Amino acid sequence: MSFEAAVKAAPAPVCDAYRPGKQALKGEHRDLIRCRDTRRFTGSIDLEAALADDAQAANLWDYGIGVRLRGDSEHAIWVEVHPAATTEVSTFLRKLAWLQTWLRTEAKALGALSQPSDEIETFVWIATDAGVHIRPGSPQARRLQQAGLRLPRQVLELC
Questions:
Q1: Per-residue confidence (pLDDT) for residue 55, from 0 to 100
Q2: Whole-angstrom Cα distance, residue 121 to residue 151?
Q3: What is the pLDDT of residue 49?
Q4: How many domains does the chain fold into?
């Protein structure tokens, strides 16, 4: 299934949030996610904007992006642009837990495109302009690692 079809299969209002390429990302965030072949970006959604009126979704995740992998299959990656301070790890992990539950229960087609892959990360923390303030080996870094995540970075280079 394509990323676009998976978005359109999601519940309202997310089903109307699909944009080609990285167009759903805020302008200041587009350049933080890079790929030499931009045609590999198949679409995007601003999940936080789409669900902003949903009072139950307090820990909203920022973006979903469709990426074409080798062999023409598509994968969904989920990017959160968030301050990368040690005090923010718990908030980030709550957002991740909310997103994973939403993908499993509400947006199953997107969840199917979000399965772990050896070729690409699925859940990514991009630091805001303040930089990354979580040191490798710190207790906060270990919490992220236990959740299957890498440390935050300032730019995501996909290919």
A1: 56
A2: 12
A3: 94
A4: 1
Here the tokens at position 10 are: 């999601």
**Which residue in this structure is represented by tokens 């070729």?**
119
- Cβ 151 vs Cβ 144: under 8 Å: yes
SS3 call for 132: strand
Instruction: Decide if pLDDT at 88 tops 70.
Output: yes
Domain that holds residue 69: 3-157
Nearest CA to 120 among 56, 77, 63, 61? 77
What's the CA gap between 108 and 83, in Å, rounded? 29
Residue type, 89: V
Q: Kindly write down the DSSP assignment for every residue of 56-93, as one continuous string.
A: T--S---EEEEEE-GGG-EEEEEEEEEEEEGGGHHHHH
pLDDT of residue 70: 83
| Residue 81: strand pairing partners | 126
Query: Is 90 exceeded by the pLDDT of residue 119?
Result: no
